[in-house]
Specification:
The chain is mostly helical. The chain contains 2 helices and no strands.
Length: about 70
């Protein structure tokens, strides 16, 4: 059973964990090879948005950690 993915979801409204889980679901569906080309392209584009959103979260976390470490040194 494949998870239904709404490619119209605004990824900026998702938490890091939600984005990561959605990205895993996108990859799983794309790797299955069972989707029509149009759906594959939509999922790929959505996956790119999710990956960018996850990367932004991780960059923010890194900056916060670096700032906190700078405060203690």
């Amino acid at each position: 059973m494949t998870q239904e993915i709404d490619t119209t979801t605004d990824v900026t409204q998702l938490s890091y964990e939600q984005s990561r889980d959605q990205l895993k679901a996108v990859v799983n569906q794309l790797e299955s090879g069972q989707l029509p080309l149009q759906m594959s392209m939509e999922l790929w584009e959505y996956g790119e948005k999710l990956a960018g959103h996850c990367q932004a979260y991780l960059q923010q976390a890194t900056q916060k950690i670096e700032a906190a470490q700078g405060d203690t040194h």
